[in-house]
Design goal:
By secondary structure, this protein is mainly beta. It is 0% helix and 54% strand. The strands form 2 sheets. Strands 2, 4, 5, 6, 9, 10 and 11 form a 7-stranded mixed beta sheet that branches. Strands 1-3-8-7 form a 4-stranded antiparallel beta sheet, with no helix packed on it.
Length: 116
């Protein structure tokens, strides 16, 4: 499974960005795709995830501001981020998890910077 994240950038506080994760390879083996982020000097943390059955989970820090979605083909997972705050600044990574083995697959990160 290969993952390609895109859509990061510089945005002012209160602004919006949409991240995309393009998924390819053995997609049928995957049942969950999500986003994690890592700020400088901090551990990588969970942000949001969506299952094949369209069950969504969010970190408390982003609930009500971020929305995760997927296309029907399970080939693209998006993260709509609204009302961005400086503390949302981080490198964002998409991750897929296999249904049977629980093996995780990581994409490269995309930088999000929230600053005035």
């Amino acid at each position: 499974v290969q993952l390609q994240a895109s859509g990061g950038g510089l945005v002012q506080p209160g602004g919006s960005l949409t991240l995309s994760c393009a998924v390819s390879g053995n997609i049928d083996s995957i049942n969950t795709i999500g986003w994690h982020r890592q700020a400088p000097g901090k551990a990588r943390e969970f942000v949001a995830a969506i299952t094949r059955g369209i069950i969504r989970n969010y970190a408390d820090s982003v609930k009500g501001r971020f929305t995760i979605s997927k296309d029907t083909a399970w080939s693209t997972v998006s993260l709509q981020m609204n009302d961005l705050k400086p503390e949302d600044s981080a490198v964002y990574y998409c991750k897929a998890r296999a249904a049977v083995t629980f093996e995780g697959f990581w994409g490269q990160g995309t930088q999000v910077t929230v600053s005035s």
